Amino acid sequence: MKHKTLPAWAPLKATVSLLKSRAKFRTAARRRLKDQIRYRDQTIKRLQSEIARLQGLSRPQPVHNCVYPAQMMAMAVFIVLHGGSLRCAAATVGFYAELMGWKYNAPAFKTVSNWVERCGLHALNLAKTISGEYVAILDASIQIGKEQLLLLLGVKAELAASLSRPLTVADVEVLGMEVQSSWTGGDVSDFLARNLQSRPGLRLKYVICDKGSNLMSALRSLALPVINDCSHVNEPGQAVVQRRRWAERALRCRWPFWLFIVGIQINVNWAKIKALSYIASQLRIEVRNFSFSA
Length: 294
Fold this sequence. Notes:
- The chain is of the alpha/beta class.
- The chain has helices spanning 10-58, 70-81, 86-100, 109-126, 157-162, 185-197, 213-221, 238-253, 257-291, and strands spanning 132-142, 148-156, 173-180, 202-209, 226-228.
- It has a five-stranded mixed sheet.
- Helix 2 (70-81) runs antiparallel to helix 3, helix 6 (185-197) packs across helix 7 (213-221) and helix 8 (238-253) runs antiparallel to helix 9.
């Protein structure tokens, strides 16, 4: 039996086939490595951009003509508008600067007050673009010393007609506010005229106020309809009820007439002082809440 002899080139062909399979495998491996390198480079680029963005956020952003950066100013105003005190806001932003590694000391509480007032002024300037039919709320509150703040708030007429709940800060726009030592009827009239002239598209359907003499004089001169607020309706107040009790007690005890008159006067004056102090405190809270949330 004769064995079939292989050609001389057969081992070479097997070697070539083996080398081709190895080259194919290595080519696929190189492609996988190239894909991994490309994905790695993309990840590095994305992380570098994210680091740059975070560094930009953590870097103090300067404000023109201001010592403190914008982040500290924004945080302080945010704290005050959400119920924090001026001193609390100043101390908090000082801790924040220390945490971020910034070389800024805590600002004074008066500095924070100036920041909040500037934001309020900016909100008032934005309110000059208001147009449409509004219901106005007009009142004056006692400020520091003899200064009085005259505040004009506005609620959209269609909203006021459809509401079945108390007003919130979001429902109200600040139409105007000014501070001076006293407000006569002429001063209030000029105040209203200036605010209406600065907003040509604004129309007042009616005005809600406590019917003070100066306010009523101004509203009559401008021919604006007036409605009482709910806290100044004509109902027997605490002073009237207390005066009746004094009279009944005096009749039962048969006090001298002059003592009866003095007692009534003292009681009425004390009731007025308590009522005025309560109203002033409520108006201060009202002004603080409404003036900076517009």
